[in-house]
Amino acid sequence: MPEVQQADPATRRRAFFGAAAVALAGWAALFVMQDWLRGLAGADPVAARRALEDAMIWGSWAACLPVAVLATWMWLQGLRISRAGRYPAPGVKVIRDTLVLHGDAARLRGIVLRVLAVFLGLLAAGTLIAVHLLVARLEA
Questions:
Q1: Cα–Cα distances in Å, from 22 out to 31, 39, 56, 116?
Q2: How sure is the predictor about 140, in pLDDT bands with cuts at 50, 70 and 90?
Q3: Cβ within 8 Å of residue 85, ≥6 positions away
Q4: Structure pTM?
Q5: What is the distance of C-alpha 118 from the center of its chain?
Q6: Residue 63's closest CA among 135, 116, 125?
Q7: Which pLDDT tens digit goes with each residue over 34-90?
Q8: Closest Cα partner for 131 from 70, 26, 74, 55?
């Protein structure tokens, strides 16, 4: 019979409430942003443009920083999995019952995680660079 790592209820609860908190924060940010944009409608055009440029820069950092943190976590998890030859890595708590893989199958999962981590890191960096170049071009 294949080995199955049982889900940890506390970790599942933490994951659920974490996802709910992120969704709630995004929902609240939408309403705050709408009010802020309505306030810009009557502002001086130069001040409004400057405020929008600043919002683009801050918004890109706010969006890309969590992606970069996720990419770092994925890289480290992929490294642990590849070194241990076991997926999920030893000591990791899971949120659902997970089939344990050993050997080459586990190492392949580790490699896939690291490739995705590199992709996410490049995506976050590219987004920040593109936004900064766009704002610089708008200022010119």
A1: 15, 26, 20, 22
A2: confident
A3: 102, 103, 106, 107
A4: 0.86
A5: 13
A6: 125
A7: 999 898 888 888 888 899 999 999 999 999 999 999 999 999 999 999 999 999 999
A8: 55
Angle between helix 104-139 and helix 45-84 axes, rounded to 10 deg? 170
Token pair 């443009």: residue: 49
Residue 102 pairs in a beta bridge with 86
Is the backbone peptide bond immediately before 2 cis, with ω within 30 degrees of 0? no
Long-range contacts of 86-89 (CB under 8 A, 24+ apart): 88/5
Contacts of 108 (CB under 8 A, 6+ apart): none
Torsion of CA 17, 22, 28, 32, to 10 degrees: 160
pLDDT by residue (tens digit) across 112-130?
A: 999 999 999 999 999 999 9
Please report the DSSP string for 12-68 in residue order: HHHHHHHHHHHHHHHHHHHHHHHHHHHHHTTS-HHHHHHHHHHHHHHHHHHHHHHHH
